[in-house]
UniProtKB/TrEMBL annotation:
<protein>
    <submittedName>
        <fullName>Flagellar biosynthesis/type III secretory pathway-like protein</fullName>
    </submittedName>
</protein>
<keyword id="KW-0282">Flagellum</keyword>
<feature type="region of interest" description="Disordered">
    <location>
        <begin position="1"/>
        <end position="21"/>
    </location>
</feature>
<dbReference type="InterPro" id="IPR051472">
    <property type="entry name" value="T3SS_Stator/FliH"/>
</dbReference>
<dbReference type="GO" id="GO:0005829">
    <property type="term" value="C:cytosol"/>
</dbReference>
<keyword id="KW-0653">Protein transport</keyword>
<dbReference type="GO" id="GO:0015031">
    <property type="term" value="P:protein transport"/>
</dbReference>
<keyword id="KW-0966">Cell projection</keyword>
<keyword id="KW-0813">Transport</keyword>
<keyword id="KW-0969">Cilium</keyword>
Amino acid sequence: MQSSYNLIKKSGAHSGGSKPIETNYVNEKIKEQKEHIEKNIIDIDAMVKKYENLGANIIKNAKAEAEKITIASTKKAIEIERLAYEKGYEQGKQNGYEDGYKSGYDTVMQDTKEKVLEDLKLAEYVLSTAKDDYKTYMNEKKDAILKLSLDMAKIIAGKEFQLEDGILQLIEPILEDSIGEENIIIKFNPTYKEKIMEKTDYWKKAYRLKGEIFLLEDPFMEIGNAVIEKNTGKVVVGMDVALEKLEEALFK
């Protein structure tokens, strides 16, 4: 059965003098999706901002409404005070100026004070309700915003790992924990072949590996993922694994 992997040994030694079989794997999807990825980043960012702006507008509109109530109440108080003066003046002329004026004025001003307090309570209620509405709205949209943020992270991470050396930052920490190991096998998407081959000699010396590093191209492996097999076990690294952990942390 023909294997889907291509074995590459950095030393160039192959049994029977055979040459390594290379897979000419061109990820056309990367090229085709470049503009689409950038557009998605913008779209997701715009959607998150839209949710945040809608939430902020709840508070903004409530403040405007409360301010309108306060201004109207102030104008009303000024007008009532004017009427109170006129009423007190008229009542003062009828009942004896000093006592009559004071009685009429105080009565109207007391009514005014009560009405103004009612208006202020209404303004406070509008603001308080808006804050509650804002909290409710943002809580309802929390999962949506988190999902959009996760989608954005996936797009950005995917874009980063489409670079040929993007996988190295995931492989090297595993090799750092493999000092003194014998043979190591690294499986990866052919996109990363050149960069990984460039690093194998360095890895063997830096991590004092006793045997060889065998490189296996797997055209069916997702971009951004790799498998490192050593005597002590197998480790799967990649963008998918990291994002799954991120998703668990966000939605647990």
